[in-house]
Each structure stands twice: as C-alpha cells, then as structure tokens.
Design goal:
This protein is α+β, with helices and mostly antiparallel strands. The chain contains four helices and six strands, in the order H-E-E-H-H-E-E-E-E-H. The mean pLDDT is 94.
Length: 147
C-alpha cells in the first residue's frame, strides 16, 4: 500500500503523461513501463474493485489528492478521437469509489492528444502525434471549452 505522500511523489516523477492542472493522464502500458510500483498499486486498486484489467485503458492520477480514476477507452488505438465508455473514480483517502457510464450518453467525453499518454517509442505514438498535428492544423484545438 502506498502512502498519500509516496503516491504524490510517484505521480510527479512520471516522465510521460498528459498534464492538466489537477491531474495527469496516461495509458496503462506507459504506467507499467515507467513506474512499476505505481502500476502495481493501480492494478491492486482495480482488483479490489473487481474491475478487470480489460475494462480500463487509461489512468487519471491526481497531482495533490490521494485519488485516481480508471478510464475505459476501448477504442484508444482504433479511433483518432475515442470516446469515454466508463470512469471509475476512487478516493483512496476515504476508501470510496463512483462509477460513471458514458456509453449511452449523446455527448461523451472525447480523448485528444493521445501521444502524451504513451512512451515516445510506443508503436502507436507517431500515428497519435500525426492525428494531433492534423487536428491542430484543422483548428480543432483553437477554442477549448473548460467545463
């Protein structure tokens, strides 16, 4: 079991991640190769929740709080901009979790900048970079909406 302090240290030390103000996102393959200790911890959390590894692809790790989310993007590698199917958010301090399903929603969250969540040598990293570059050239990221 990790302490909240060690969790925060390991999250801060991750070399490859998509960084947002309060959290970082990365693919579970990236987590496995760059922080085996954190990966084992996240897998233990998923196992405790009886969430099979095939039901989460990305992990969202809080930068300051002792919390994480296991995110299901089953078409991460197949679609340029995959949609979120399910999120399992775990408050590790309170030992509570919530499950939010998006697969029946009309407007589920869409993932972008996937290359940030992979190691640079990942076989799909270059194609993900090209998708982001094409999106930037098309102006898809010109007017982000923060909700």
């Amino acid at each position: 079991m990790l302490t909240p302090e060690r969790f925060t240290q390991l999250v801060a030390a991750l070399p490859y991640k998509k960084v947002l103000p309060d959290a970082v996102y990365l693919h579970k393959e990236t987590l496995a190769t760059t922080s085996p200790q954190l990966y084992r911890f996240v897998c233990a959390v998923a196992q405790a929740l009886k969430l099979p590894e095939c039901e989460w692809d990305l992990v969202k790790l809080a930068k300051q709080d002792f919390r994480l989310s296991l995110l299901s993007y089953p078409t991460f590698f197949e679609e340029a901009y995959p949609s979120l199917k399910q999120s399992v958010t775990v408050d590790l301090a309170k030992l509570s979790h919530t499950v939010t399903r998006y697969d029946s929603q009309d407007n589920p969250p869409i993932l972008h900048r996937k290359e940030c969540m992979l190691t640079p040598d990942h076989p799909q990293a270059e194609s993900c970079r090209q998708i982001t570059e094409e999106g930037e050239l098309a102006g898809l990221y010109d007017h982000p909406v923060v909700v």
